[in-house]
């Protein structure tokens, strides 16, 4: 009776064929992976200067040939010594010495050139990563955990010399002397021993090497897969060195809890890592060590015993053969100067190209209108003045109350920004903004109010091009704010976020951070510092505006929370002074006292007259001076108008305004 096959055709019926097919596809995958790796390395190598690459190749070639020359010359000296041939001894020992000297000279040169090549390739990679991550990618994409991980991994690796793409190029070039030595050893075996022994030696060396590098790449993959665990541990470690957190650790008395947490994480991490290491390296070590021992012994036997028995092998040839065989059997190891750099450097490059894949998608969504800067946006006009000229009010926001209190009317030169049907959601959560329509007229101030989580900061991020809308449209100067127009638009905006950055740099740099082209404008910097009430404080400092703002820096100082906020305000005012056309303040006075807040708004409106501004605030005393107030609730604008109109309407604005003013009066 014949066997009935029940499995699908090509599987149960033909096990032999299936194995062959699986083997063939594994080989194809292996070849494809090697080809990709070679292409990547070739591409990266081309980023270094050709003269440096040529120098590296020549030096590596010499470094590969010299040990072979050493084997030949030192082995040739043995029969010369035995035959008392003084001139031959002198010649061969002289050449052996020369080989040693050449190696001594070549080694430091190799290192020097390798550093140059690595630095050139890494500089290229850093430029590419930062250009894409900081210029093109939408913030939302960069905030995705996988992308944030890739970016963190890539930037950290670029700081670690042994893990950079330049290191991978250096590692690949450093393989050259190893392979030159292998080729030399194989030739020696062929000439002094036999052709078969030479072929065997080559096959064993390459197989062994392949096995070891494969095991190593599996180990690197296992190591990379634990990047999250490493980051968690690094976070706990870094907490201790962070001044604010170390203050908390003392106050909360959590040192031993933190230590325990770190030890537990570290034990779990090391345990997993060592299990992976044993699994991957143990097996390959046993298999390949046995192969090397057994096959290596057979090879030596083949290469030496036969000619020794025949009496045709001289002492010099025996020495050469033994050293050549040693070289071949020692080829099956991980080369510290190459393999680690190659594996980690390529992973870093893949992380960089991973970030680029996202930015590429952003570019692709740019609707082909690259490089178009919207009208009214871009470089500031020459001769920007600190206090802008008063301009007539816009038709639809001209209200006696608002204009009066804001110290003047606003320009009516049309809409700077129009927002229509704007929708936005983070990930798969419910929409944060749902159909926002808004017009920001040129030269007017608009305030957005709303409760916590209403979507105010999200709206700011969309208006400043940090996020792209899911639906709807933002127009700036009549032109759509496409990804390609974002960079130009951002150059004309000055934004103060709630969580503004306190740069560990000088006062000057902190103030000029939004207009770095004007870092030398010391008078302008001092003037805005005066305006925000920091003139006296900064004037007291020995180095004035060139004082670093951190106690962790020599001669540095620090500011109070409110003073930092004033400094951040100075930053945006300085940007306005140098031509920013759209000013956004997200909770600008949250850390100021009531008097400071009142003074700030008086000054702010005077200083920014003629500039289109958007203020986000919870404090009604701040927003009432704006030309237009929009109330945001649950992602929609529910009320809009001037302060007087909204109070007269008796809606949510009026209710909240009364509540706040009663509280202030009570206090
Ligand atoms: N990066 C983010 N990922 C996911 N959800 C977010 C993110 N940022 C904000 N959200 C959510 O979006 C909603 C709106 O947040 P947003 O910061 O815009 O509010 P807001 O009005 O500025 O609040 P607040 O007055 O408290 O600053 C909130 O529910 C918030 O939890």
From TrEMBL:
Domain (ABC transporter): residue spans on this chain: 417-659
Annotated region (Disordered), positions in chain: 1-23, 390-410
Protein's membrane topology: Multi-pass membrane protein
GO molecular-function term, one example from the UniProt record: ATP binding
InterPro entries per UniProt: AAA+_ATPase, ABC1_TM_sf, ABC_transporter-like_ATP-bd, ABC_transporter-like_CS, P-loop_NTPase, Type_1_exporter
Keyword annotations of the record: ATP-binding, Membrane, Nucleotide-binding, Transmembrane, Transmembrane helix
Tree of life domain: Bacteria
Regions that span the bilayer: 53-74, 86-106, 182-206, 285-305, 317-336
PROSITE patterns in the record: ABC_TRANSPORTER_1 (PS00211), ABC_TRANSPORTER_2 (PS50893)
CDD domains per UniProt: ABCC_MRP_Like (cd03228)
SMART domains: AAA (SM00382)
Composition skew (Low complexity), residue ranges: 400-410
Cell location: Cell membrane
Signal peptide residues on this chain, from the entry's feature table: none
Name used for this protein in its record: ABC transporter ATP-binding protein/permease
């Amino acid at each position: 009776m014949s066997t009935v096959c029940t499995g699908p055709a090509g599987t149960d019926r033909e096990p032999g064929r299936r194995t062959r097919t699986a083997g063939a596809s594994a080989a194809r995958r292996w070849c494809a992976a090697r080809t990709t790796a070679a292409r990547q390395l070739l591409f990266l190598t081309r980023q270094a200067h050709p003269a440096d690459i040529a120098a590296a190749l020549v030096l590596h070639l010499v470094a590969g040939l010299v040990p072979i020359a050493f084997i030949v010359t030192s082995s040739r000296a043995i029969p010369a010594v035995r035959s008392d041939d003084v001139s031959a001894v002198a010649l061969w020992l002289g050449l052996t010495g020369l080989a040693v000297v050449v190696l001594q000279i070549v080694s430091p040169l190799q290192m020097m050139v390798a550093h140059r090549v690595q630095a050139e390739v890494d500089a290229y990679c850093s430029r590419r990563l930062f250009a894409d991550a900081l210029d093109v990618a939408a913030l939302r994409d960069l905030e995705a955990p996988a992308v944030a991980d890739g970016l963190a991994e890539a930037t950290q690796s670029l700081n670690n010399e042994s893990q950079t793409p330049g290191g991978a190029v250096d590692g690949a070039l450093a393989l050259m002397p190893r392979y030159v030595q292998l080729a030399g050893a194989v030739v020696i075996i062929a000439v002094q021993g036999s052709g078969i022994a030479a072929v065997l030696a080559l096959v064993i060396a390459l197989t062994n090497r392949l096995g070891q590098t494969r095991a190593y790449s599996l180990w690197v993959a296992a190591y990379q897969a634990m990047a999250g665990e490493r980051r968690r541990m690094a976070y706990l470690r870094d907490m201790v060195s962070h001044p604010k957190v170390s203050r908390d650790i003392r106050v909360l008395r959590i040192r031993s809890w933190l230590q325990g947490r770190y030890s537990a994480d570290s034990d779990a991490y090391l345990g997993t890592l060592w299990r992976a290491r044993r699994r991957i390296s143990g097996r390959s070590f046993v298999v390949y060590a046995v192969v090397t021992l057994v096959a290596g012994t057979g090879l030596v036997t083949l290469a030496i015993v036969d000619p020794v028995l025949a009496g045709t092998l001289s002492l010099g040839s025996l020495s050469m053969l033994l050293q050549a065989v040693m070289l071949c059997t020692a080829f099956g190891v991980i080369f510290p100067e190459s393999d680690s750099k190659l594996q980690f450097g390529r992973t870093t490059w893949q992380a960089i190209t991973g970030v680029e894949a996202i930015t590429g998608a952003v570019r692709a969504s740019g609707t082909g209108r690259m490089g178009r800067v919207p009208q009214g946006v871009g470089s500031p006009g020459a001769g920007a003045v600190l206090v802008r000229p008063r301009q007539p009010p816009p038709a639809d926001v001209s209200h006696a109350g608002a204009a009066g209190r804001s110290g003047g009317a606003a320009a009516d030169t049309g809409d700077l920004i129009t927002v229509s049907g704007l929708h936005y959601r983070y990930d798969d959560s419910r929409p944060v903004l749902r159909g926002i329509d808004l017009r920001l007229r040129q030269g007017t101030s608009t305030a957005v109010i709303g409760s916590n989580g209403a979507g105010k900061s999200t709206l700011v991020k969309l208006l400043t091009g940090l996020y792209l809308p899911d639906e709807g449209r933002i127009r700036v100067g009549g032109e759509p704010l496409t990804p390609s127009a974002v960079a130009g638009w951002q150059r004309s905006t000055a934004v103060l976020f709630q969580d503004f950055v306190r740069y560990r740099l000088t006062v000057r740099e902190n103030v000029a951070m939004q207009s770095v082209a004007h870092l030398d404008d010391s008078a302008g910097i001092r003037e805005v510092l005066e305006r925000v009430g920091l003139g006296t404080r900064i004037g007291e400092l020995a180095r004035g505006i060139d004082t670093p703002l951190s106690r962790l820096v020599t001669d540095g100082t620090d500011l109070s929370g409110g003073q930092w906020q004033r400094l951040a305000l100075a930053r945006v005012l300085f940007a306005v002074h140098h031509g920013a056309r759209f000013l956004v303040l997200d909770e600008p006075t949250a850390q100021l006292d009531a008097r400071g807040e009142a003074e700030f708004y008086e000054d702010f409106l005077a200083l920014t007259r003629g500039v289109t501004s958007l203020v986000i605030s919870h404090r009604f005393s701040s927003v009432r001076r704006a030309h237009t107030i929009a109330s945001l609730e649950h992602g929609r604008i529910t009320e809009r108008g001037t302060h007087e109109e909204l109070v007269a309407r008796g809606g949510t604005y009026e209710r909240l305004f009364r509540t706040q003013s009663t509280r202030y009066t009570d206090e």
